[in-house]
Fold this protein.
Amino acid sequence: MKNLDLTKQTVASLSRLIKSKEISPVEVTEASLERIAKLDGTLKAFVTVTESQAIQAAKDAEKSIMAGKYVGPYHGIPIGLKDLYYTKGIPTTASSKVLADFIPSYDATVVAKLKAAGVVILGKTNTHEFAYGYISSPTVNAWDTQRIPGGSSGGSGCAIAASMCLAATGTDTGGSIRVPSAMNGVVGLKPTFGRVSKYGVIVLAWSIDHAGPMTKTVEDAALMMNIIAGYDPKDPSSANVPVLDYARALKGGIANMRLGIPKDNFLEPLDPEVSAAFQKAVEVLKKLGARMEEVSLPNAGLAGKIGFYMVCSEASAYHERWFKTKADLYTPAVRRYLKWGNLTGAALYIKAQRIRTLISNDFDLAFKKVDAIITPTLPITAPKVGEDEVSVGTTKMPLSDACRRNMYPLTLTGLPAMSVPCGFSHANLPIGLQIIGRPFDEPRVIRIAHNYEKSTDWHLRRPAL
């Protein structure tokens, strides 16, 4: 396989070659590490690169596979872990000086599951400090290094787009899997709340945090979900709901499936290029046999503001122990958010929870009419580094508002939502399509996304680095 660029492959394609022993996990891992060494000085997607541990894990995987003990599609596959996931013996810093010296004594449940599936961990990917923002500095966008990668899982999104790893983990509280997936042209799935364990994942907001996969393709995300999904008694928010075979969802079409398009909040305003890409995606789905229905989600527009209040309150409670003694170690923006959280008050938090219920009720009614809902992932493409205000069509708004709008309704309701590439702007910046499902209906979300992906070639594009 001399002419095969191993880093440009997908998990699914490489796993077949690894299983048949045509390619060694050591070759794939060395190629990934070489690419990190070549590109990450500019992209800064990784906080920590665990080169020696990765090579040893690849050798162990090779030995096991050669002995006939192949355990599944991620066996011998090099991945990145967002630097919120506890990794035994490896620093977990949340990209913050507050935890600069923290080395966990155990693995997060997701990490333990991935290790049991034979993955090779290349290192820890950058995050906006404590996942509290949308910029993910110092990471930049692989498509344009003058632009942000989105956050907070910006390191994971950039690393996948740049083919420094084949897949990665992310977390999503206000869109932190879906925002960087859209801005980097990769696939990201925020599963149903409680579907994937958060034990050993550093908290942003207890009642809204989600953990999930970020990959190059829908198939690769489904294969990772088969590993990481499931009940975990160590996580109080974990849902004891049977786990399905997500890879089976890749089979079958979407003929006569009813897809909802919101008539309010999600589609106005939009960048004109995002709007055009979304309309083209709708036409592709229609050609595949899906039927479009208009749905109303009147309270979804409140989600951004109340979600932010809830995050501020819960994050400040979590950080109280450190904020008393290490406030000066936080970046100014996160320090300011934590101060706001201390001022939010119980009355406002309770009102936010009541509105959260109204938003959930809206989705419940919508899902009586349709099987899934589709929206643009974001109303914008990746803005330039340092832009705090963005233009959305003819409307100016804070970057944080633009990022929250189509994100928070799904984190507050806990519904599964996946972002897949659906186009590029004239500046060659990725655009994302968001597919939303009923609780624990990830298989339908995956099926719709996979059928769309097969009918387009957006996911095949890679940045010219």
Remarks:
- The CA atoms of residues 290 and 461 lie 26 Å apart.
- The chain has one domain: 16-460.
- The chain has 14 helices and 13 strands.
- The mean pLDDT is 97.
